[in-house]
Design goal:
single chain, alpha+beta, Heat Shock Protein 90, Ribosomal Protein S5, domain 2, Rossmann fold, eight-stranded mixed sheet, six-stranded mixed sheet, 21 helices, 22 strands, 38% helix, 20% strand, elongated, binds adenosine-5'-diphosphate
Length: 638
């Protein structure tokens, strides 16, 4: 039978796996056991919901080590795979997000390999870290055909029909020979397998059985023969032993568990190479009785921002998994949380449709949401550095949460927000900002821009800082939309320093400005007339220090938001209402006054240039860059 080729990216992944410098080759066992356990969960659930009548006690995983043949054989009586499923599940990896995957691994074979593999989970392919050849024999439950999938790595795989009595899957690993610097033989030792199961798979709720060799005193025909009592002879017998305790981690008491236990469980359950950032273990009794074990990963998974990413917690009823991903248990803004919930309150054979309307589930969802929030707040209070790591990975999600909920999630999320502060020069919370507000300050000031550097160079920033106010820097697209939904924090409203009605001048300054604006009304009317719809007003400003002009917005749509909307595919071309402000203390203002009296034609050219200049500083696109440049050249040539 012709060999089939792995998909290109799968092949590359396999190569990395096989040549992995990864020291933890041993995780292959936990991955295969975890797959077997899932397959048995699936069949048990199917049996319950379709009344097939299998009992829990029938399920088991068997491991046989054959030192002579150098094989480890893992057998499960789970749901098994059809021919198509073998092809689908084992023939391709990195099913989605493959484009990004390709880019990521295109170059640099060594350094980042592991983090790349890690992003994609480990899974079945880890078998190739220790085996030179892998055979998977499987028979789907309810089918009478069995197939064998075989591969020696990158050169492809074959699928053929075969004989297999019972449903389920059997995997044979042909363990590699030792090399000068790699040790593989060890995996063929019983004690090694036993210790790996103990370390990584102890919690698996089906027995993991292995035939082990035991040395026992030899039995003699005359058992009470005194001669042998002092000098017994031994014999080796083969005996099946269960290697795991089968107690689910989440059922244990917190005091029994170390961080390491939580982390190992996370990695084995959710196929991550890295430890989680945070674990949340809660047991609740009352309106809803459940235990939950949840994790915040260190980084978003590779497909987090794609349609394929599915949020949800695994749902167990009394230790039996009834749903792989229960989305109803997690709000979208906490979709990065991985974990499981086990509740005796849920009926085992409840259908998915019924689950959606289950009152109990809703109560649990609410409680889970609160406990995630509380743990994050605790992290912020107790380990700020780690929280900032969290914020870097998932902060955007939280901000979108406030925006998408039209503000209804603000109570839940507002204290988790962090923004860069002009005065602290690091991330701060809104609570911290408000505590530092000056007595005279009524609003929370913010400025938007593409980066901290860009915002720092905004014309308005200088003077607001000079007056001693702290400014929050909003550098992400979603930020201003989020702030707008929040509306206020502890009754302090948010105010963009780029808005037309930023009210930070003293009464005296205001008076002076009013006079000057009045005196120059004709000049400003002229400029406004010339610029037409592009601006709604032209006026003087006290906010500017060294810059000649700036654009501010009046109304609820800011210049920054206009920019974000313009970049979206569904651009509705909403425009901010722009005000062009001229620095009353800048020599350019004198020049404009002069031109108004003497040379209106040049004044028009100046108006265009200053307007475009202001747009550029704001990080906006200008309509006709060529024209702008030509006009400047014209002036330079004069
Ligand atoms: P993951 O377990 O993360 O989905 P794997 O590469 O480990 O990724 O496995 C791919 C798929 O192959 C699984 O999702 C499952 O559908 C199938 N599979 C793997 N092992 C078994 C098994 N022992 N029995 C049935 N199906 C299995």
């Amino acid at each position: 039978m012709a060999k089939k080729q792995f998909k290109a990216e799968s092949k590359r992944m396999l190569e990395m796996m096989i040549n992995s410098i990864y020291t933890h080759k041993e995780i292959f066992l936990r991955e295969l056991i975890s797959n077997a356990s899932d397959a048995m969960d699936k069949l048990y659930y199917k049996s319950l919901s379709e009344n097939i009548g299998l009992s829990r006690g029938e399920f088991e995983i068997n491991i046989v080590v054959d030192k002579d043949k150098r094989t480890i054989t893992l057998t499960d009586n789970g749901i098994g795979m059809t021919k198509d499923e073998l092809e689908q599940n084992l023939g391709i990896i990195a099913k989605s997000g493959s484009l990004q995957f390709k880019n990521d691994i295109a170059e640099d074979k060594n350094a980042e390999d592991l983090s790349v593999i890690g992003q994609f989970g480990v899974g079945f392919y880890s078998a190739f870290m220790v085996a030179s050849k892998v055979e998977v024999m499987s028979k789907a439950h309810g089918s009478n055909e069995a197939y064998i999938w075989a591969s020696s790595g990158v050169d492809g795989y074959t699928i053929e029909s075969c004989q297999k009595e019972t449903y389920g899957t059997q995997i044979i690993l042909y363990i590699k020979e030792n090399t000068d610097d790699e040790e593989y033989e060890d995996f063929l030792a019983e004690y090694k397998i036993r210790s790996l199961v103990g370390k990584y798979s102890d919690y698996i709720r089906y027995p993991i059985k292995m035939e082990v060799t035991k040395r026992v005193p030899k039995k003699h025909e005359h058992d009470n023969d005194h001669e042998h009592e002092h000098n017994p002879e031994f014999e080796e017998i083969r005996e099946i032993e269960t290697l795991n305790s089968m107690i689910p981690v989440w059922k244990k008491n917190k005091s029994e568990l170390k961080d390491e236990d939580y982390n190992e469980f996370y990695k084995s359950k959710f196929h991550d190479y890295s430890d989680p950032l945070l674990h949340i273990h809660s047991k609740t009794e009352g309106t809803a009785t459940y235990s939950a074990l949840m994790y915040v990963p260190q980084k978003p998974p590779y497909d987090f921002y794609t349609k394929e990413y599915e949020k949800g917690l695994q749902l167990y009823s009394g230790g039996v998994m009834i749903m792989e991903k229960c989305g109803d248990l997690l709000p979208d803004y906490f979709s990065f949380v991985k974990g499981l919930v086990d509740s005796e309150d849920l009926s085992l054979n409840i259908s998915r449709e019924m689950l959606q309307h289950d009152r109990q589930l809703k109560v649990m969802g609410k409680a889970i949401e609160r406990s995630i929030k509380n743990e994050l707040k605790k992290l912020l209070a107790n380990d700020r550095e780690k929280y900032i790591e969290f914020w870097g990975a998932f902060g955007t999600q939280i901000k979108f949460g406030i925006y998408n909920s039209y503000g209804s999630a603000r109570e839940m999320l507002q204290d988790l927000l962090m923004f860069y502060s002009s005065s602290e020069e690091k991330l701060v919370t809104l609570g911290e900002y408000v505590l530092r507000m000056k007595e005279s300050q009524k609003e929370i000031y913010f400025a938007s821009g593409a980066s901290i550097v860009r915002i720092n160079s905004l014309p308005q920033v200088e003077s607001v800082k000079d007056k001693g106010f702290e400014i929050l820097y909003l550098t992400e697209n979603v930020d201003e939309f989020c702030i707008q939904m929040l509306n206020n924090y502890e009754e302090k409203h948010f105010k963009s320093i780029q808005s037309a009605d930023l009210d930070i001048e003293t009464e005296e300054e205001k008076k002076e400005l009013k006079e000057k604006n009045k005196d120059n009304k004709a000049l400003f009317d002229f400029i406004k007339e010339h610029l037409g719809d592009k601006v709604s007003t032209v006026r003087l400003s006290q906010k500017l220090k060294s810059h000649p002009v700036c654009i501010v917005s009046s109304g609820s749509l800011s210049v920054e938001m206009e920019k974000v909307l313009a970049a979206m595919p569904t651009d509705n071309h909403a425009k901010a209402d722009k005000v062009l402000e001229i620095n009353a203390n800048h020599p350019i203002f004198d020049k404009l006054q002069f031109l108004f009296d003497n040379d209106k034609e040049t004044l028009e050219v100046y108006s265009d240039i200053l307007y475009n200049q202001a747009l550029l500083i704001e990080g906006m696109d200008i309509d006709d860059p060529a024209k702008f440049v030509n006009k400047i050249s014209e002036i330079l040539a004069k």
